[in-house]
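seq:
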Amino acid sequence: AERAREQSERRLDIVQKRLDAGVVTRLDLLRAEVALANADAQLIRARNAWELARRAFALAIGLQPSEDAAPDGAFEYTPTDEPLADLVAAALESRPELRELNEREIATDHLARIAKAGNKPNVALTGTYTWNDTEKQDPQKTWSVGAGVTFPIFDGFATRGQRRQAESAQRQVALNIESLRRGISLEVQQA
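struct:
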């Protein structure tokens, strides 16, 4: 942005000299002045963005936004001998958002199995045992056992809708995982 401003300023000087010599029109001078004013605005925006980025970086590393977050020393590029596939595999292994999506995929698989079981018969077995021992009465023991079976005949297609919804959630999670894997791989390649 500073170089663009300097170029606009030099261009304005050249156009001013050409105008004095009668080679260009006043319109060319106005265009050069507008270009310089635009370069000034761009320089202000760039400086503001730099300051905001510096403050955000300070916050990210645990400093106060007003503290100087300039690094000590120089950044150096150190090439790696590791194959790209190994770097991508390590990145995929260490990303928590990918682990979260993998766990979500397991959960949606379980939900799909539950939804598919909605049209199956339900079997229930219940039992109770009670023992009362009071000073006024003899000890009493009671027990009961019950069993029940229910068969869903028609549920208004609710089971089919739940099954389709669960399958859709499975597909969505699978697409999200694949998209995230591709994004991580691209990030590693760009780094």
